[in-house]
Every structure is written in C-alpha cells, then in structure tokens.
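User: Structure tokens for both sequences below?

Assistant:
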Amino acid sequence: MKQQHPEPESQEPHYILRLFVAGTTPNSLRAIQNVRHICEEQLAGRHELEVIDIYQNTGQLAPGQMVVAPTLVRQSPLPVRRVIGDLSNRSRVLAGLDIVPHPLQG
C-alpha cells in the first residue's frame, strides 16, 4: 500500500494593503497610480488595496497617531511594513514591503 503524502502548499500569500494619502495633492495622486499599477503587475488576484484619505477619514487613525502621506502599509501578511513617498521606485516598494513578485505564467 502506497503512503500518501500531502500536496506541498503552493498557495501564494494574500496581501492586504492600505494607502494613506492627503487629499488630491500631486504626490497623493501619483502614489495611488503607482501602487495600483504595482498591484496589477505583481499582485494580480492576490491583494486587497484600500485607499484612505486622511483628511476625510480621520476615524481610521488612532487618537494621536501621526501619519506622513502618502504611506503604503502592508497589513498582511505579518509583520506590518510601511513605505513612505509617491511609490514611484517599484523595486524600493517591493523590497520595502517584502512583496514576492507574482511568478510569470509561461
């Protein structure tokens, strides 16, 4: 009788990201565009992205918490990681958030 081995877990991590922006400033708009593009290219089908305008959603911040905007926060997988800026340097964003790029489909 053959012994059955469980299939190796090939499930890729699912990323939960929050992007904090300050209104519709050029830096905020650039950050939104850059992170959406990164997510589409690198995290297709394995991410959730929430864009939070700190001017309109002060309830999303803990009392007394200071946020520099734009800031991208990786909530999951743990540990929480942050990247500050307009997110135009993709390699810095991927490294800063420790995101494993989606493998190329051949």
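Moving on to the next sequence.
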Amino acid sequence: MPDTPKPSDAAKPRTRPKAASAPKPEPAPVAESRPARGKKAAEGIGERVADTAKRVGKSLRASSQTWAEGNAEIGLKMIDQAEQNVQQAFAAMRAAAKAKDISEVMKIHADFVRDQGERSMAQARQIGELIVQVGRDSVTPLRPGGAK
C-alpha cells in the first residue's frame, strides 16, 4: 500500500526540522590554575610589601641619623653658650673685685645682668632655630622622595 497521508497527519502544521545546533566553543585552555595564579598574585604583593618595608626602613635610618647628628650639634652649641656665660660671669667678678667703690660694683653688676639677659635671649633664639632645623632635616627622609 502506498503511503497515503493519514487524516491525523494533515491536521498537524508542518515544521521545519531543527537545524543542528552549532557546537559551543570550548573555553580556552587556562595556562595556570586558579591556585597558581593566586600564588603568583600573593608573591607579587609580598614583593611590593617587602620593597615598601625596605624603603621605610631606609628612611627611618636616615631620619634617625639626621636626628642624632642634629642633637649632638644642639648639645655642643649649648655647651659653648654655657662656657661663654661662665667666662662673662668671671669677667664681671674680676671687674667687681677691682672696683674702687660700691657704686662701681653696682654698675658692673647692672651691666652684667643686662648683657646676660640679652645674651640669654640670643642664645635661646639660636637653640630654637637649631631645633627647628634639626626637626625639618629629620623628617625629610620620611617624606615621599626624601630618602633615596
């Protein structure tokens, strides 16, 4: 018997056969596994942290060295000033010892006190300026680009 369409087949709409779906491309092979990439990233971060720590350490050493040298300079300046003050005091005492009367002693003493006050102000200003300079010089290595 020839193939004759069945009445039930005629009622169905004709559909095209589905085209074969294109194969999905396979993901490109990953050269490294995730753990390997993570390890490399951690090593890179570790190197950057180590480099930063080395730079900070170098800056701190330079800053400490500058601070120590500056403090030594301040200490020597204070000793020089104290020596100068003692010499001036002895000079005033010698002059007072050679004075002919009490009014001359009073004048020598007044001159010494006035001069010592001016000298003390100048010395304090010098020490203050040195302290400020040492502070500036000491923090320079800690600033970006300060220590090379």
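User: Anything stand out in the second?

Assistant: Residues 37-142 form one domain.
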